[in-house]
Amino acid sequence: MATTPSLPITQFSPTKLRIDTTNPLSLLPKCTSLRELKQIQAFTIKTHLLNDLNVVTKLINFCTQHPTTSSMDHAQHLFDGISEPDTALFNTMGRGYSRSKTPFRAICLFVQVLNSGLFPDDYTFPSLLKSCASMGAKALQEGKQLHCFAIKFGLNNNVYVCPTLINMYAECNDVDAARRVFDKISEPCVVSYNAIITGYARTSRPNEALSLFRELQERNIKPTDVTMLSALSSCALLGALDLGKWIHEYIKKYRFDKYVKVNTALIDMYAKCGSLDDAVSIFNNMSVRDTQAWSAMVVAYATHGQGYKAISMFEEMKKAQLSPDEITFLGLLYACSHTGLVEEGCRYFYSMRDKYGIIPGIKHYGCMVDLLGRAGRLDEAYRLIDELPITPTPILWRTLLSACSSHGNLELAKQVIERIFELDNSHGGDYVILSNLCARAGSWEDVDFFRKLMRDRGAVKVPGCSSIEINNVVHEFFSGDGVHSVSTDLHRALDELVKELKMVGYVPDTSLVYHGDMEDEEKEITLRYHSEKLAIAFGLLNTPPGTTIRVVKNLRVCGDCHSAAKLISLIFDRQIILRDVQRFHHFKGGKCSCGDFW
DNA sequence: ATAGGGTTAG
Description:
Blueprint: H1 14-17, H2 34-46, H3 53-65, H4 69-80, H5 87-99, H6 103-115, H7 124-135, H8 140-152, H9 161-171, H10 175-184, H11 190-202, H12 206-218, H13 225-238, H14 241-253, H15 260-272, H16 276-285, H17 291-303, H18 307-319, H19 326-339, H20 342-356, H21 362-374, H22 378-386, H23 394-406, H24 410-423, H25 428-440, H26 444-456, E1 465-470, E2 473-478, H27 489-503, H28 520-528, H29 531-542, E3 549-553, H30 559-571, E4 576-579, E5 584-588, E6 591-592
Parallel strand pairs: 3-4
Antiparallel strand pairs: 1-2, 1-3, 4-5, 5-6
This protein binds one DNA strand of 10 nucleotides through helix 3, helix 5, helix 7, helix 9 and helix 11.
């Protein structure tokens, strides 16, 4: 492979290049390395220019463009040599700190600016606010103080400061504050729109994101590639396939498909909206694919239950000379755990650090707990969490709790729920799992104990909700809708449906119903009006025969609904694609893509 | 010398 030879020192000789020796800075645009910069700097010393603030600022700016440890050290050295820096110099140095991911230093520098009696200007705030944003919620206080200073110096309405303010609040987990800043702008530009739309998309508020996306179009403001990313991610959150397709058309029309990131967001949107085929075709048509695009495909195959394809994507990616990142590994480990490939999963987990130098994060450990737990290696999973180098989250224990539940291990489940309660006792779902486990073991006193505990602590279970999009309208159904109200056409249709299912061998699994003191018939009705059954029945009634039914559920699919969906796909010859909170289930011809392993 | 960014366990 040919490498670009580094420029020989002589090339910087002013006589050979006939360069104005009084202006060594004219060499800066051609400068490509820190070594060359130091040579230019040598000239500035010769010509007594190194005390010129403007010159030093330019040298420092060069060092901070693509910061490395040595270039930042050099910038610091240059900065320290100046006795009376001006605002511009402070700004440049501060931006360097922000870029080199040392946000705290950037903020300390701002304090120096104020103490020196200098005035911050419109260049001062963007990088400082970005520093706060990069630290997340823990920097909200600092961010608010900077906001106050921006107001004090009359810069809060500046066209460059506004979007960073919005972004800072959004990244520091206060999207509503971000919105208040946005709403005060009289004529928001597309960057401010992007900042707030992205904030909503990232905090799982897709409806607000999309309504601002519509507002932007009504105002005839031209969206950018960044707008497309957030709009697509909102569709992905909602599972809104039709809207996603519309945005895809829009992207093609305005040529946003030349951006790799937009294509990656399209892959993710199609995968999350249940159309794996479309995701694959976007990927196949991409001319340039980066690590992120490959990762999106690994995740897509994994969540659709095609573990082996996810793994082969990973192998092909390596052949394409791209290195996996932490997200690629999440997808890969996820694929292994949902396909039951325990040994492979462990091997990949260890190779992360040993071969690729990626330190496993809390989510990777989560995958490992799931992997071992599903395989019934519950004690190993428990030990893994207990010996974690990082503080476990309740989610990690909850993963193990659901493994205990599927393996019927009440003893361990009781230990695990204690560990969960140490961290969070407000999650109704945990009590329900325990109480159901106790019911299955016939331990009715324990059932009452956990039910009472849940009531006393005011812990609530999120109600199950399933939605289905038909002709651009999203219909939502809640679990138990109609159990106590007058029956409608939908309920009558569902009653008929259950009769038909029973004829082909369906037996309602009432052991999954939580309310222990109900009569069996009552339990069966509760089960019958589960949100996913209501949504599927609605889809059967309102779409032409043979159409695929796509349902999105907010929780994990219930076991009884899963059996029912398999039978429905068989007797009505319909494909049903159900997205639950963690994965996809493709029902076809009486079978599910998850192989009943979820 | 100035802004906004997709993929993330259950």
